[in-house]
Structure formats: structure tokens, C-alpha cells
Amino acid sequence: MGGEALFWIFIVIFSLLMVVGFLLVDRPHKSRGIQTHRAVRSDPKEPRGRHLPADPVDRTQTDNRL
User: Fold this and answer.
1) Apex CA 53: angle with CA 47 and CA 59, to 5°?
2) Higher-confidence residue: 36 or 24?
3) Share above pLDDT 90 across residues of the chain, in percent, rounded to a whole number
4) For residue 6, which phi and psi values (nearest 5 degrees)?
5) If DSSP states are collapsed to H, E and C, what string results for the chain?
6) CA torsion, points 54, 56, 58, 63, in degrees to nearest 10?
7) Rounded CA separation 40/45 (Å)
8) Rounded Cα distance, 52 and 54, in Å
9) What's the rounded mean pLDDT across residues 61-65?
10) How many Å apart are CA 5 and CA 17, to the nearest integer?
């Protein structure tokens, strides 16, 4: 075989291995009985999550130094 044929065979095999490796790594994790992290509780009525709303700002008391 010539060098060019070996090169293309290598490219095809390498590409197939990359696709198979990507599919194996890209699978979602299997769910286990023990959770390794705690989920943050969120209130569906509060769109900002678990934090309290910020205090309102009075625009007359600020100085414009920018």
C-alpha cells in the first residue's frame, strides 16, 4: 500500500474512535441512590430564587461621579 492509502485509513479509524469516544463521554450520568450534592430549594413564586429582594435606591441621594 502507498503512504496516502495508509494516511486515509488512519484518518477514518481515528475519526470513528473519536465519534465513539464522544458518544460514550456525552451520555448523561446514571442516577444513584445516594445524592452527592444537595439541591438548592427554590420557591416558584420568587423568580430570583432564595435571596431576598434588594432595597430600593433613592436616586436623589446618589452622586454622579462617572
Assistant:
1) 125
2) 24
3) 29
4) -65, -40
5) CCHHHHHHHHHHHHHHHHHHHHHHHCCCCCCCCCCCCCCCCCCCCCCCCCCCCCCCCCHHHCCCCC
6) 20
7) 15
8) 6
9) 72
10) 18
Cα–Cα distance, 66 to 63 (Å, whole number): 9
14 contact partners, CB below 8 Å, separation of at least 6: none
Find where cell 485509513 sits: 9
| pLDDT score of 13 | 97
Dist CA 28 CA 37 (whole Å): 17
52 contacts 44 by C-beta, under 8 angstroms: no
